[in-house]
Amino acid sequence: MIDDKHNMPRAETLQKKILVIPGDGIGPEVTRWGRRVLEAVAEKFGHTFEFDEALMGHAAIEATGNPLPDETLEKARQSDAILFGAIGHPKYDQDPQLKVRPEQGLLRIRKELGLYANLRPIKLFDELLAASSIKPEVLQGADILFFRELTGDVYFGEKKRADDNSWASDLMIYHAYEVERIAHKAFETARQRRKKLCSVDKANVLESSRLWRSTVQRIAAAYPDVQCTHMFVDNAAMQLIRDPRQFDVILTSNLFGDILTDEASQIAGSMGMLASASLGDGTGLYEPIHGSAPDIAGKGVANPLASILSAALMLQVGFQLQEEADAVWRAVEQVLRKGYRTLDIADKHTENNMIVGTDGMGQQVIQQLVHA
Ligand code: IPM
Ligand code: MG
User: Fold this and answer.
1) Quick one: DSSP state of residue 314?
2) Per the domain annotation, does 5 fall within a domain?
3) pTM of this prediction?
4) Burial group, residue 8, by CB count within 10 angstroms (0-12, 13-18, 19+)
5) Whose CA is nearest to atom 12 of ligand 1?
6) Which residues line ligand 1 (CB under 6 A)?
7) How many domains does the chain have?
């Protein structure tokens, strides 16, 4: 293939197998657009992406009784990357007694594929400065990359419940190797960025956090060019809103990362804008950080940009296709610049939004991408 701009043969084209797991709620509506964007990129840049689909979560429970059917796991292992939508259904939220639950599917696939590092970039498109409930002057220029540990902590520690229901417990446990491997990834990435890493824990109270902190301190010695600081999670929750620009890379545990990244989504305007990559040593999984949003599912109003940006992360991190990923980012930027908004990112201060639904937004991005 010839690169028009430089009139030179382009780097070789890729052949990849992508598994799409739409999941529950708004998952299928938004993931459709993540997939369409990948198809458009393949066509434009001459790659061959082969797609397959599989079930997970409530959709899988309904069809097979299992939130992560063997077939899905098998397909996942054989793919080069996974594009995932969302998981969860109100039925389970209202009934905590139910033993088989959609979220088990997601947690198990993370564990089975060894996806221990969850990258959650928080970057605000300038066009969305007014969409956030935080003041623009506090937000402008904020650019944070979370490394959330994803296969340890209280999520996976032993769970117990007394037969008479008088108590229950979840074990918060970390092994040093679990902290080491994600710390290395986070420091290496910080090196490519602004060379600042803030490790977030609760070492003033929790033993597992003290292990976390001393392990990070030890690893930090190998990266003297990266400035490493430590912060308690309660303070971090406050600092994120007070002055998000102080952060570059934030490294934290599974539970703290879950909570802090939902909070940080407000820095990017909406949960509907945030993509994530879950990485281990093999196949990576790319997904929006938002949930299944049952309240708006099926209404055609969900923002597909988080899925589209997850597809961009797949191109960048999974396939090392930086130019292709940039093309998707630019297309999203252009569409926002033209004023197209889903409801969640509407500018509350003006009447000039062009409000579109899921499909309207998806189509705009595809058009921009194809015609750029
Ligand atoms: C996330 C989600 C999941 C988590 C749920 C759906 C299990 O909130 O990816 O942030 O808690 O990790
Ligand atoms: Mg979460």
Assistant:
1) I
2) no
3) 0.94
4) exposed
5) 258
6) 87-88, 103, 106-107, 258, 289, 291
7) 2
